[in-house]
């Protein structure tokens, strides 16, 4: 497994557990990433200033400055505002997930995680950052969205969506793997100044799922409990 393209994306690992850092660095390098390490938040911020990474893996529990605080500080700097951040966390409390998303993390991985899962999430976040999708067709796994023609197909089968479902799905497709809160999805599909109960999003997600998912096909939309939704392309089948 290698990262996309011939250039190795540069990933900064911010974590104070040495054993985990070693494991992460080993696996990411094997997967084709260039890796740097920082053991605390202050060091990480200095390193990011020197050279902006393509992505930061940021542990929540760090000495001195917490991961969530590092995340907030990064977002406050104009030159780093859009830096992709995946938070590593042992916390599974709902309030913490929401805090993390509000603090500006692009995605979350809860410990313990598998390296394959982590690398898939990193690649998903990077694909969003590097829109190789300059064409008019967004392709995600077996799903195709012809943006010009407003047509969606899954495994060649036409998918019929209403205009709101289409906008919602398009937003999710443009940011694969990223978790959005209901409020963020409302802004994206309905516009920022519309006052609708965020629960309405659930109704539209149900309709999208019904339209997209045929029998025996994996659900492409991930529900993140108490946080929101994300789009995950159907995983490639791997013999194991
Ligand atoms: Ca830690």
Describe the strand arrangement of the main beta sheet, using strand numbers: 2-1-3-4-5
Counted up, domains total 2
The biggest sheet, with number of strands, parallel, antiparallel or mixed sense and barrel status, is: 5 strands, parallel
- Number of DSSP helices? 8
Specify the helix fraction band: 25-40%
Distance between the termini: 14 Å
From the alpha carbons, calculate the radius of gyration and give it in angstroms: 18 Å
Identify every distinct bound molecule in the structure, by name, code or SMILES.
calcium ion
- CATH class category name of the largest domain: Alpha Beta
What is the CATH topology descriptor of the largest domain? Answer: Rossmann fold
- Strand composition percent: 15-25%
The SSE order reads EHEHEHEHEHEEEEHEHHEE
The averaged pLDDT comes out at 84
Instruction: Compute the number of strand runs.
Output: 12
CATH homologous group name of the largest domain? Response regulator
What would you call the shape? globular
CATH architecture of the largest domain: 3-Layer(aba) Sandwich
Q: Runs with pLDDT <50, length 5+? A: 1-6, 131-135, 236-240
Structural class: alpha/beta
């Amino acid at each position: 497994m290698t990262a996309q393209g011939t250039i190795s994306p540069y990933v900064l690992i911010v974590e104070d557990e040495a054993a985990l850092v070693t494991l992460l660095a080993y696996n990411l390098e094997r997967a084709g990433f260039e890796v740097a390490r920082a053991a605390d938040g202050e060091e990480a911020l200095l390193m990011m200033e020197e050279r902006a990474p393509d992505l930061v893996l940021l542990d929540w529990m760090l000495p001195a400055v917490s991961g969530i605080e590092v995340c907030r500080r990064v977002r406050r700097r104009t030159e780093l505002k859009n830096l992709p951040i995946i938070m590593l966390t042992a916390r599974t409390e709902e309030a913490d997930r929401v805090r993390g998303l509000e603090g500006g993390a692009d995605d979350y991985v809860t410990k313990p995680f598998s390296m394959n899962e982590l690398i898939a999430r990193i690649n998903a976040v990077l694909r969003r950052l590097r829109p190789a999708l300059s064409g008019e067709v967004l392709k995600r796994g077996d799903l195709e969205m012809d943006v010009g023609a407003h047509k969606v197909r899954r495994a060649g089968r036409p998918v019929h969506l209403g205009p709101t479902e289409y906008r919602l799905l398009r937003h999710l497709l443009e940011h694969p793997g990223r978790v959005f809160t209901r409020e963020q999805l409302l802004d994206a599909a309905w516009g920022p100044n519309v006052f609708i109960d965020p629960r309405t999003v659930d109704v539209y997600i149900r309709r999208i799922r019904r339209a997209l998912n045929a029998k025996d096909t994996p659900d492409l939309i991930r529900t993140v409990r108490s946080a929101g939704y994300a789009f995950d392309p159907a995983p490639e089948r791997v013999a194991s």
